């Protein structure tokens, strides 16, 4: 199966500053991939590299087996909904669909019209007069009606209220089920991704901290709580992701494929949010700790 996104030592710098460093990923197709990280982590940079809007400063990236944005056939395979789901304020909903039809060879007009009708959007209404949620749905409609193999969305729900957020994510998941799309979606809110994603990439301070199928990540990460212990005394096959201690007690989030036999530990499962926070909590090279917004 062709990988949806492969990156090898990928990096991008703006001036002297690296926005993405040494990024190596191999994401199989058929997933809804959540790209999560705090503000400034490099999410937009990675997505812009994947959609061909930026060129790498180091390493390489292929998307669906081709170089991003290289040829029209490659452009047709990838849909992109940019941050803040931009639309043209002076154009009507119907104008947006006409533009979509003109610019995209694989345009599915019936799908676009049907979706607009189901959403209850007036085709004559100017995009500038739509609510944020309606504008996001219009942008999503255009992205889906292009009938891409991969849809990339950069923080599409960041500006939406919780209800509009849920409706947007529902619409996206329906499209995934109906049209067998692969999706890469960025957010700095774990809760947006928790319901939708089956593959996770955590990006912090321009580096990939962890990537993999959500099910596998949740099955191999555990919380250990027990008497205070130095992390260096844990078995070699238990990779410590995060550690916290009180005078008498230690709590570790570890990654391991092996069973945990030590009777000193209380072992508990962790959720996606705990997993993301553990990777974000891991001190970066410069010792600073990034913050993640967690909303329910
Ligand atoms: N055009 C640019 N010129 C210079 N620096 C940039 C540019 N775009 C991004 N950066 C810097 O690169 C880093 C990564 O930015 P990027 O927008 O990729 O992060 P992000 O994870 O998408 O953040 P956010 O969640 O806030 O959208 C940041 O430090 C940012 O300031």
Automatic annotation (TrEMBL):
InterPro entries in the cross-refs: AAA+_ATPase, ABC_transporter-like_ATP-bd, ABC_Transporter_VariousFunc, P-loop_NTPase
Domain of life the protein comes from: Bacteria
Transmembrane segments: none
Molecular function as annotated in GO: ATP binding
Residues annotated as domain ABC transporter: 5-230
Alphabetically ordered keywords of this record: ATP-binding, Nucleotide-binding, Transport
Protein name per Swiss-Prot or TrEMBL: ABC transporter ATP-binding protein
UniProt source species: Actinomadura vinacea
């Amino acid at each position: 199966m062709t990988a949806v996104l492969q990156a090898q030592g990928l990096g991008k710098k703006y001036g002297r500053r690296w926005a993405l460093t040494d990024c190596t990923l191999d994401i199989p197709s058929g997933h809804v991939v959540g790209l999560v990280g705090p503000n400034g982590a490099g999410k937009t940079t990675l997505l812009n590299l994947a959609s061909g809007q930026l060129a790498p400063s180091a390493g390489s990236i292929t998307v669906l087996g081709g170089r991003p944005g290289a040829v029209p056939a490659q452009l047709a395979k990838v849909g992109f909904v940019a941050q803040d789901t931009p639309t043209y304020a002076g154009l009507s909903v119907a104008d947006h669909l006409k533009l979509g039809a003109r610019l995209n060879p694989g345009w599915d007009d019936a799908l676009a019209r049907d979706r607009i009708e189901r959403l209850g959007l007036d085709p004559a209404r100017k995009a500038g007069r739509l609510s944020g949620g309606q504008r996001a749905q219009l942008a999503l409609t255009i992205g889906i009606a292009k009938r891409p193999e991969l849809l990339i969305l950069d923080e599409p729900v960041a500006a939406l209220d919780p209800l509009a957020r849920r409706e947007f994510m529902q619409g996206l998941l329906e499209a995934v089920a109906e049209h067998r799309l692969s999706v890469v979606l960025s957010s700095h809110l774990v809760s947006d991704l928790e319901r939708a994603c089956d593959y996770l990439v955590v990006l912090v301070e321009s580096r990939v901290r962890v990537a993999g199928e959500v099910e596998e990540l949740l099955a191999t990460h555990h919380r250990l709580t027990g008497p205070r212990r130095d992390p260096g005394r844990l078995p070699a096959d238990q990779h410590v992701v995060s550690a916290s201690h009180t005078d008498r007690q230690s709590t570790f989030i570890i990654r391991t494929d092996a069973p945990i036999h030590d009777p000193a530990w209380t072992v508990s499962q962790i959720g996606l949010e705990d997993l993301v926070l553990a990777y974000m909590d891991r001190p970066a090279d410069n010792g600073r700790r990034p913050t993640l917004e967690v909303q329910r």
